[in-house]
TrEMBL record:
Keywords: Signal, Transport. It comes from Paenibacillus violae. This is Iron-hydroxamate ABC transporter substrate-binding protein. Its main location: other. It comes from the Bacteria. The keyword Transport applies. The keyword Signal applies.
Amino acid sequence: MKKLFALSVVILILLLSACGSKPTSTVSSSGTFTYQSEDGPVQVPTNPQRVVVLTRFLTGNVMLLGVPLVSVDEMSKTNPNFQDKLKNVEVVTDESIEKIIELNPDLIIGLSDIKNIDKFKSIAPTVTYTYGKVDYLTQQLEIGKLLNKEKEAQAWVDDFKARTKQAGEEIKAKIGANATISVIETFNKQLYVYGDNFGRGTEILYQAFGLPMPAKVKEMTQKEGFFALSTEVMKDYMGDYVIFSKNADEDNSFQNTETYKNIPAVKNGHVFEADAKAFYFNDPLSMEYQLTFFIKNFLGK
C-alpha cells in the first residue's frame, strides 16, 4: 500500500510539473500550428500538400523545400529553371477564385498587395509577405518556418553563404577587388541598370560577393533600385564587367550601336549574357542558377 501511495505521489508530481511547464511547440493535435505572419497569427498545416503560390517572387522558395505546389503564376510556369518541375501545375492569378477553389489548396501564399485576400482566406489559410521587407536569406527562413521546414531552410542559408563567400573571394582574386560590375537589362524597349537588391544576380554580386558597382550606378539606383539609361549616357554606367540579363523578345538594338561597341567592357569581352527569364528573381532556385552562372563566367569553372 505504501509503495502504491508513493508511486501515486510521483505520478502526481510529474503531472503537475507538465501542467506548469511552457509548451515547446505551437503544433496542435489537429495537424496545424500557429505561424506568426506580418498580419498576425495564422493557423497553418504542419505538412502542407496542396500549396498555391500567387507570386513569382516566392515560387522558388517553396520549391526548394520540396513542398507540393498545385498552382503558380504565369512567369513562374515559364521560368526555364522551373518548367520541368511545374509541368503539371496550374497557372493562376489573384483573380482566379473559382479555379483555386477547385484545386482545394491547404495553404495559399502571396504578396501583401494581392487582390481578393478575404476570399482567399475563406478558401484556405492565407499568408502574405511584403516584397523586399527582409533580405533574401531571411525570406527563405520565413518560408521555412511557414512550411514547417525551418531546419532545411537554415541548412540552405548556411550552405549558400559559405559557397558565395568562397566564390566571391576567388572572383576578387582573379579580376581584382576594385573591379566594378554593372547589371543591365532591356524591358519595354528601355535599357535599365540595377542596384544591389533587385534580382538579376545583384544580391549575390554586391551583397554576398561584395563586388563594387560604378559610382554612377550606386548614386542613381539608391532610390528605386534601378535606373533607365539612354544610349548617350550608357558608357558612364558600365563597369569593368557587365552582366546583361537578356530577353531575346525585347529590343536589344543598343548592342549594335558604336557607343556600345566602344565601351571598354565590351571591347575586352567582359560582357556576360544571361537568359533574363531565368535570371529575374532572388528566390533560392534562381540564385543557385545565378551563382553557377557567375562561377562559370568569371572563373571558367
